Amino acid sequence: MNNKNKLPREAIAMRVTKELHNGNVVNLGIGIPTLCPQFIDPGKFIMFHSESGVLNYGEMASEKKEDTNLINAGGQYLSWDNPGMSVFDSAESFAMIRGGHIDVAVLGAYQISAKGDLANWKLTNRKSGNIGGAMDLAIGAKKLIIAMEHIDKKGNIKLVNNCSLPITGSKCVNTIVTDIAVIEIINECMILKEILPGWEIQDVQEITEPKLIIDKNLKEIQL
Amino acid sequence: MTTYSKIYKSTLEALKDISDNSSIMIDGFGAGPGGTPQNLIKGLKEIGSRNLTIIGNTAGITMATGIGIKEGSKDIDISILIDNNQVKKIIASYPVAPSPSILTSFEKAFNKNEIELELVPQGTLAERIRAGGAGIPAFYTPTGVKTELANNKEVRIINNKEYILEYALKADYALLKSHKSDKIGNLIYKGTSRNFNAVMASAANITIVESEIILETGKIDPHHIHTPAIYINRIVKSNE
User: Fold this and answer.
1) ipTM score of the complex?
2) Residue A47's domain spans which residues?
3) CA distance A90 to B226
4) B68 contacts A71? CB cut-off 8 A
5) How many CB pairs (< 8 A) connect A and B?
6) Count of beta carbons in the 10 Å neighbourhood of residue A164
7) Exposed, middle or buried by CB within 10 Å (0-12, 13-18, 19+), for A82?
8) Cα(B238)–Cα(A178) distance, integer angstroms
9) Is A220 a catalytic residue?
10) Which chain B residues are within 8 Å of A87, Cβ to Cβ?
């Protein structure tokens, strides 16, 4: 099964951008989610928010214009040249998140349970993990999309009946975009909506612990 | 024009009463040096107060990871205080490096049980500090519900939704970095360096700011002030 084709990280990000709609306010986590902006249809207006205290940021700064006073949550330098950008303090940044003003958050995950519990802050072999803004985003965003590889690098299953790792948020995940499938969580069930060409339903089920419900309109992944 | 001034001649003069066992809020998002009061941190190392509780977004990850540090710069973070055995406890949301293969000063000390950690989600940290400065003793929040961070916390159902009780945070001192200050402490920050600075300003008994530019009082348009002078006690010039 390992020799089957899988989507590269960029293609996962590309599929995620189909879920972002004109006028949405979107917060992107570190990793695959950061790859999203380059794939957004130029006809769509998306306002990106970062926990570091900036709304409607644009491209990364060119090397000559890097300023330590304008960063995203991953510490990457942002460009000052985006019309309509605003900056604010951390209490306000998180009021935006917790107050339900962010339409979509896109995060990575270590594990997701059938109920939609998310675990993405702590691994068992480390004494501490980093929470950062993840717990606030998990419960605060109107819609939570997870962008990730379907199984981890060692082949461990990430879509599980119950998370064994400490959770970030309870019943908070709405949509999961992986390198082989698109899954929605509705009424504490995982619904298989899209599948990568070359993969059979049973192949996806084999590396997904909860029983998948197959959508009546199951499609090939649309990029 | 007032001649009243909160400017201190030297960093050490502004920091010299910080005693052992103090709690100190120190700004900086932590992903890079923006907003970090590096001169005040160096000064605190020189003062040498011990058994400190440091409240900040990270536990000092910039020096070890190089995140947000420009090539050739000598940026520092609170790791220098941990290396100098001055820190008893850290309260932070992002204490360790993103990659487990990079050990920060904090994580080395934490793995040896030489330092305590209170881990707080970033939004809860910001709101606890805001509440501390605003006279609100505690608040209910949806963040962290049903996670291990909710253990031993009071739970309350409000309008059919579950919340946990979080207490306000205050400190003996706050160390800030601003872009501009006038002589009485009206502050302007630059870009995302406002983040925890503007929140911590109100939550400490003594708030000390290092400012890149110091202007005569009256030279900042009142509409443009991010932190009003009421919160600031001491001002020093930030040496590049």
Assistant:
1) 0.96
2) 9-220
3) 13
4) yes
5) 161
6) 12
7) middle
8) 48
9) no
10) 191-192, 194
Instruction: Determine which one of A10, A19, A51, A206 is catalytic.
Output: A51
Q: Cβ atoms within 10 A of the Cβ of B13, count?
A: 12
User: A145: part of which helix (H) or strand (E)?
Assistant: strand A143-147
Residue B16 counted as domain residue: yes
Low-confidence ranges of chain A (pLDDT < 50): none
The answer to whether residue A116 sits within a structural domain is yes
Q: Do A74 and B33 touch (CB under 8 A)?
A: no
Q: Note whether residue A130 is domain-resident.
A: yes
- A17 domain-assigned: yes
Gap between the Cα atoms of A182 and A147, Å rounded = 10
In a domain, B98, yes or no: yes
Provide the terminal-to-terminal Cα distance of chain A, rounded to the nearest Å: 23
Specify the CATH number for the domain of residue B221: 3.40.1080.10
Estimate to the nearest angstrom the gap between the alpha carbon of B66 and the chain centroid.
20
DSSP per-residue letters across B65-129: H-TTPPTT-----THHHHHTT-EEEEEESB-S-SSTTS--HHHHHHHTT-SEEEE--HHHHHHHH
Could you tell me which chain B residue has the CA closest to the CA of A130?
Answer: B94
Residue B66 lies in a domain: yes
CB B77 within 8 A of CB B92: no
Is B77 inside any structural domain? Answer: yes
For residue A4, tell me if it sits in a domain: no
Domain count within chain A? 1
- C-alpha A145: how far from chain center: 5
Kindly provide the b/e burial profile for residues B20-44, where b requires at least 16 CB atoms within 10 angstroms of the residue's own CB.
eebbbbbbbbbbbbbbbbbbbbbbb
Task: Give chain B's domain count.
Answer: 1
- A-chain residues near B196 (CB < 8 A): 89-90
Give the tens place of pLDDT for each residue, A11-28: 999 999 999 999 999 999
Of the residues B143, B179, B213, the best mutation for testing chain A's interface (the one with the most A CB atoms within 10 Å of its CB) is B143
Range of the domain at B56: 11-119+170-237
- pLDDT tens for each residue of chain B, 240 residues long: 679 999 999 999 999 999 999 999 998 887 778 899 999 999 999 999 999 999 999 999 999 998 888 888 889 999 999 999 999 999 999 999 999 999 999 999 999 999 999 999 999 999 999 999 999 999 999 999 999 999 999 999 999 999 999 999 999 999 999 999 999 999 999 999 999 999 999 999 999 999 999 999 999 999 999 999 999 999 999 986
Query: Residue A103: which CATH number?
Result: 3.40.1080.10
Contact B123 A71 (CB under 8 A): no
